[in-house]
Amino acid sequence: MTILHLALATDWQAAQHTGDYRVSTLGRTLDDEGFIHCSRDTAQLHGVHDAFYTAVTEPLLVLEIDPTGLDVRIENGFPHLYGPLPLTAVTATHPYQPPPGHTST
């Protein structure tokens, strides 16, 4: 199982220097929220993008996360990671791309 997180490329780059990732969602940290918002699949990730990230002009990345050994809880249908995201749990990163023919609302 893999979970996903939508990240600003600059936030992910900063995490490379600190050793872990602590951004919950756009403009909110782990300390602000108490957990890191994630998505269970790409459809849910696209919904998160449409709800919160359509006005973002800087590059976005999708972080693919192996939740093994992490405190992940499903709440309101979304995986929430309680605690910082270790860089080693991120198995892949790639630029966020909306699905073909997708238009944001």
Give me some keywords for this one.
105 residues, alpha+beta, three-stranded antiparallel sheet, 3 helices, 25% helix, transferase, DUF952, EC 2.5.1.18, glutathione transferase activity
Taking strands numbered 1, 2, ... along the chain, how are they ordered across the largest sheet? 1-6-10
Give me the Rg, rounded: 13 Å
H/I helix tally: 3
What are the secondary-structure elements, in order, as H or E? EHEEEHEHEEEEE
How many strand elements?
A: 10
Condensed summary:
The chain has 105 residues and is α+β, with helices and mostly antiparallel strands. 25% of the residues lie in helices and 35% in strands. GO terms for molecular function: glutathione transferase activity.
In words, what does this structure look like?
Keywords: Transferase. InterPro entries: DUF952 (IPR009297). GO terms for molecular function: glutathione transferase activity. This is Glutathione S-transferase. It is an enzyme of class 2 (transferase). The mean pLDDT is 94. Strand 3 and strand 4 form a beta hairpin. The chain is globular and about 35 Å long. The protein is α+β, with helices and mostly antiparallel strands. A 3-stranded antiparallel β-sheet has the order 1-6-10. A 3-stranded antiparallel β-sheet has the order 5-8-7, with no helix packed on it. Strands 2-9 form a two-stranded antiparallel sheet. The chain has one domain: Alpha-Beta Barrel (ADP-ribosylation fold), CATH 3.20.170. It is 25% helix and 35% strand.
Please specify the SSE layout and strand pairing.
Elements: E1 3-8, H1 9-18, E2 20-21, E3 23-25, E4 28-29, H2 30-33, E5 36-37, H3 42-53, E6 60-65, E7 72-75, E8 78-81, E9 85-86, E10 90-95
Antiparallel strand pairs: 1-6, 2-9, 3-4, 5-8, 6-10, 7-8
Enzyme class: transferase
GO molecular function: glutathione transferase activity
EC number: 2.5.1.18
